[in-house]
């Protein structure tokens, strides 16, 4: 299937989201035209203002309920590719169906709309997650695109509402991605487009979408903030607990390359590497931090709480572990990103210290 060239019109679902706004920005900067979907008209004011320099290269389409059959029928018309980022991401659902049904119906629904009404669509890119890849492990493992998180599905089936919130989310991502490939494989002979899924781990980085408080930010940003600033996981967890991560700007770039490159296909894991939470504290000590424009961003673990009493309550900043050695850290979750390198050309990633400092600049600008 040929690549989708600059100048083409790209549909981005959930355009006001954390990841989606960066995808829209990267597409526009790369010379594409964008149609973004939002759930209500009032969500569009901020987006229009933020991207005003691009004029009519950005248009918005209101899709109130992504679970409704045919919800995207109008939105997919006359677009050349689709970037589907709209899916619930939180751990607060009681009923697993609150996460699972919108994820599956929204994902399969846009594929159905593309098959039914998207006569010019050449490629569909779906944002999934390594939550659909991993399985519980107490020892270091290397995961790749052949791995599926079937354990989360079984646990939700067995425990229902009593399953942990993050397990419900993991199951929703796994089931939605499986459903997407099942639909595509069943209809491969009758569709004119191919399918790519992009699976990132934790996504960090500066926020450009319209959020007023940290509590309403993307779930991964909230967890970062609470862990680093508010001792949510405790001191020991800083050096013992971690995962893998990716800067949101690299994730947006991967989405754009997934439509640019003819060879992009199937499931693709994109990750900068593994981390322990302590690594983000350590990044505040780098010499380059002193080059930043605002003192807030020249934070160190020991001085951060004194910068703003409103944000850093006494003893609120998680103390550092003096015995932590990043060179000796054992990472249980590791991802093979050779496919992303081969198909998307993802060979260089934004480093952890830059991601950290850019988030701190963003937090300061928002008064967080």
Automatic annotation (TrEMBL):
Which positions fall inside the NAD-dependent epimerase/dehydratase domain? 10-268
Question: Keyword annotations for this protein?
Answer: Oxidoreductase
- Extract one GO molecular function annotation from the record: oxidoreductase activity, acting on the CH-OH group of donors, NAD or NADP as acceptor
Q: Which InterPro entries match?
A: Epimerase_deHydtase (IPR001509), NAD(P)-bd_dom_sf (IPR036291), NAD(P)_dehydrat-like (IPR050425)
Is Oxidoreductase among this UniProt entry's keywords? yes
SUPFAM superfamilies assigned to the protein according to its UniProt record, in alphabetical order = NAD(P)-binding Rossmann-fold domains
Q: Which domain of life is it from?
A: Eukaryota
Give the family this protein belongs to, as stated in its UniProt record: Belongs to the NAD(P)-dependent epimerase/dehydratase family. Dihydroflavonol-4-reductase subfamily.
Identification of the protein by name: NAD-dependent epimerase/dehydratase domain-containing protein
């Amino acid at each position: 299937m040929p690549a989708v060239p600059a100048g083409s019109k790209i549909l981005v679902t959930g355009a006001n989201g954390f990841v989606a706004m960066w995808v829209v920005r990267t597409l526009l900067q790369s010379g594409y035209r964008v149609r973004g979907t939002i759930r209500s008209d009032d969500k569009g004011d901020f987006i229009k203002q933020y991207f005003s320099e691009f004029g009519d290269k950005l248009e918005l389409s209101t899709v109130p309920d992504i679970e409704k059959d045919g919800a995207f029928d109008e939105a997919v018309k006359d677009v050349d590719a689709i970037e589907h980022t709209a899916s619930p991401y939180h751990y607060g659902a009681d009923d697993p169906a609150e996460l699972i049904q919108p994820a599956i119906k929204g994902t399969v629904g846009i594929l159905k709309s593309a098959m039914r009404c998207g006569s010019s669509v050449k490629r569909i890119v779906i944002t999934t997650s390594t939550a659909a890849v991993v399985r519980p492990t107490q020892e270091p493992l290397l995961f790749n695109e052949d791995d599926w998180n079937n354990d989360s599905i079984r646990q939700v089936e067995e425990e229902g509402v009593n399953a942990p919130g993050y397990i419900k989310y993991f199951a929703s991502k796994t089931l939605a991605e499986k459903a997407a490939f099942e639909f595509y494989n069943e209809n491969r002979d009758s569709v004119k487009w191919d399918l790519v899924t992009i699976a990132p781990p934790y996504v960090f980085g500066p926020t450009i979408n319209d959020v007023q408080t940290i509590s309403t930010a993307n779930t991964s940003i909230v967890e970062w903030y609470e862990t680093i600033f508010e001792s949510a996981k405790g001191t020991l967890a800083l050096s013992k607990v971690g995962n893998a991560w990716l800067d949101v700007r690299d994730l947006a770039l991967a989405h754009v390359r997934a439509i640019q490159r003819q060879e992009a296909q199937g499931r693709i894991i994109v990750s900068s590497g593994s981390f322990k939470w302590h690594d983000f504290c350590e990044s505040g000590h780098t010499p380059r931090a002193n080059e930043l424009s605002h003192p807030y961003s020249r934070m160190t673990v020991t001085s951060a709480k004194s910068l703003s009493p409103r944000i850093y309550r006494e003893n609120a900043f998680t103390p550092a572990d003096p015995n932590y050695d990043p060179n000796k850290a054992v990472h249980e979750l590791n991802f093979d990103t050779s496919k992303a390198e081969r198909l998307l050309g993802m060979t260089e990633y934004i480093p952890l210290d830059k991601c950290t400092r850019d988030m701190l600049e963003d937090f300061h600008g928002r008064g967080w």
